[in-house]
């Protein structure tokens, strides 16, 4: 069965600092992996997706993630945090086509200090 | 460009009452999904519809029913609401080579 684990339910960084949000997955078949962002009282917005092409995936708002099969990881990074990055971030996995059922991690809330 | 539209946005029910959450998408997606979001648990799939005319159970289907009315609309019904169903409900749609797009959610409280 597929599963997703996000390490750290809360992460706090200073404005301008590196953002690193961790995601590990388990899957018996090559997965498709996603990061979504949720701002307060809103739905989820797709940040980026991995679909077995390039292992380094660039997304919106300066975020990127690297697929590492040997570590079963798909960590999300951004070189320099901005106050507007404060939100909850979800890692998700599915198999097969991109319209398939998503399995979500528990979420990581990112706080950005001035 | 509306995307995925959910109604209502907020609702308060008493235990035992019934209600239907509505969802419509205008992206011509084949697949539609209902999730619930609870603190510390991420989003969990309740039901999904891979195409018009089909529905299947997800991870947490108990206490819910769904109807895929047509390609655009996918409703979620609570027949007899229970306090454990207090949650934020999200509808999503997706298709081949298209990641899922989410609505803004329905915040449901059951007293």
State the order of secondary-structure elements of chain B, H for helix, E for strand: EEEEEEEEEEE
Sheet/helix structural class of chain A: mainly beta
Report the uncertain regions of chain A: none
Low-confidence stretches of chain B: none
**Chain pair with largest interface:** A-B, 22 and 28 residues
Quick one: biggest sheet of chain A? 6 strands, mixed
In percent, how much strand structure appears in the residues of chain A? over 45%
Q: How many H/I helical runs of chain B?
A: 0
* Spatial shape of chain B: globular
Kindly name the structural category of chain B. mainly beta
Biggest sheet character of chain B: 7 strands, mixed
Q: How do the helices and strands follow one another from N- to C-terminus of chain A?
A: EEEEEEEEEEE
Distance between the termini of chain A: 41 Å
Tell me what the structure shows.
- The complex is a heterodimer of chains A (114) and B (111).
- By secondary structure, chain A is mostly beta strands.
- Helices cover 0% and strands 56% of the residues of chain A.
- Chain A has strands at 3-7, 10-14, 19-26, 31-38, 44-50, 56-58, 64-68, 73-78, 87-95, 103-104, 108-113.
- In chain A, strands 2, 4, 5, 9, 10 and 11 form a six-stranded mixed β-sheet that branches.
- Chain A is globular and about 40 Å long.
- The model of chain A has no long low-confidence stretch (mean pLDDT 90).
- In chain B, 0% of the residues lie in helices and 54% in strands.
- Chain B has strands at 4-7, 10-13, 19-25, 31-37, 43-49, 56-57, 64-68, 74-78, 87-95, 98-102, 106-110.
- In chain B, strands 2, 4, 5, 6, 9, 10 and 11 form a seven-stranded mixed β-sheet that branches. Chain B has a four-stranded antiparallel β-sheet with strand order 1-3-8-7, with no helix packed on it.
- Classes of the chains: A mainly beta (114), B mainly beta (111).
- Chain A binds chain B through residues 4, 9, 34, 36, 41-46, 49, 90, 97-102, 104-107, and chain B through 4, 29-31, 33, 35, 40-45, 48, 58, 90, 92, 94-105.
């Amino acid at each position: 069965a597929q599963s997703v684990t996000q390490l750290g339910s809360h992460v706090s960084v200073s404005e301008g600092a590196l953002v690193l949000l961790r995601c590990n997955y388990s899957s018996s078949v090559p997965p498709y992996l996603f990061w979504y962002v949720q701002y307060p009282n809103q739905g989820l917005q797709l940040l980026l997706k991995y679909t077995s092409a390039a292992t380094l995936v660039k997304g919106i708002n300066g975020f990127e993630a690297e697929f590492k099969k040997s570590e079963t990881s798909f960590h999300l990074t951004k070189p320099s945090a901005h106050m507007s990055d404060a939100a909850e971030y979800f890692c998700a996995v599915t198999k097969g086509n991109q319209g398939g059922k998503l399995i979500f991690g528990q979420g990581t809330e990112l706080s950005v200090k001035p | 460009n509306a995307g995925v539209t959910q109604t209502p946005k907020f609702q308060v029910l008493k235990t035992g009452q019934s209600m239907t959450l509505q969802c419509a998408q205008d992206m011509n997606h084949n697949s539609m999904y209902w999730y619930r979001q609870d603190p510390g648990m991420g989003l969990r799939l309740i039901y999904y519809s891979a195409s018009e005319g089909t529905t299947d159970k997800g991870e947490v289907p108990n206490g819910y029913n769904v109807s895929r009315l047509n390609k655009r609309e996918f409703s979620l019904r609570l027949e007899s609401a229970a306090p454990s169903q207090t949650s934020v409900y999200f509808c999503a749609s997706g298709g081949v080579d298209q990641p899922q797009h989410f609505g803004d959610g329905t915040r449901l409280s059951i007293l």
